[in-house]
Amino acid sequence: MATIIRKTETLTDGDVIRAFLVSKGLVYESYKTPEALDIVLAQKGLSDAEKAEVLSGLEYRFDQLKKDHGYKANDLVVLHDEVPGIQDMLAKFDKLHIHTDEEVRYIIDGSGVFGFIIDGEKFEVHVGKGDFISIPANTNHWFTLDQNLRIKAVRYFKDNSGWTPVYVDESKVLVNA
Ligand SMILES: [Fe+2]
């Protein structure tokens, strides 16, 4: 279950978190991952065959999301401290940006932090295993890993072309930092 850190409070209750994120225009769900994948997900890194095994084990989730939201493609991102160039990869997304397509992530191992500035409010959503989040196109956000430097996340796409970050000047969108 996610944790939300606002300037004045920390939200940890599932229903409160969901309601808060809905009020900000974000989609949040908590989906248990299949126990059959626990052993492979416990590994830090995954081979291509193991990544395919994980996506295959989550095909039922993809099928549901295709039906409900029209996603057309998915892939699996595996990041950890031994991934070459990881700091450069993180540096691309840890500054405020938008995309012209939705950013949809299902966290299936590890943890990370999405930050947002929505309606002038800056807040963080700390995500972990089982958290599903959809960030609409043109929403100001950033992403980074926490001190564990480890995450596995399925990405769902409607359109692969929207994937370049468009950087946003924080001072222009922030009202009450
Ligand atoms: Fe992004």
Structure description:
Its cofactor is Fe(2+); Ni(2+). Ni(2+) binds at residues 97, 99, 103, 141. Pathway: Amino-acid biosynthesis; L-methionine biosynthesis via salvage pathway; L-methionine from S-methyl-5-thio-alpha-D-ribose 1-phosphate: step 5/6. The record marks 105 as: Important to generate the dianion. By secondary structure, the chain is of the alpha+beta class. It has one domain (3-172): Jelly Rolls, CATH 2.60.120. Helices cover 27% and strands 35% of the residues. Strands 1, 2, 3, 4, 6, 7, 8, 9 and 10 form a nine-stranded antiparallel β-sheet that branches. A hairpin with a 4-residue loop joins strand 1 (3-5) and strand 2. The chain is globular and about 45 Å long. The model has no long low-confidence stretch (mean pLDDT 93). Residues 93, 97, 99, 103, 141, 143, 165 line the site of fe (ii) ion (FE2).
Concise synopsis of the structure shown:
This protein has one domain: Sandwich (Jelly Rolls). The protein contains 6 helices and 11 strands.
Under CATH, the topology is which? Jelly Rolls
Count of individual domains: 1
Task: Give the distinct bound molecules.
Answer: fe (ii) ion
Shape call: globular
Could you name the CATH class?
Mainly Beta
Under CATH, the homologous superfamily reads Jelly Rolls
- Separation, N- and C-terminal Cα atoms: 25 Å
Low-confidence stretches: none
State the oligomer.
single chain
In DSSP terms (H or I, runs of 4 or more residues), the helix count works out at 6
Radius of gyration: 16 Å
The amount of beta strand, in percent, is 35-45%
Order of helices and strands: EEHEHHHEHEEEEEEEH
Number of strands: 11
Q: How much helix is in the residues?
A: 25-40%
The class by helix and strand makeup works out as alpha+beta
Major β-sheet profile: 9 strands, antiparallel
What's the average pLDDT? 93
CATH-derived architecture: Sandwich
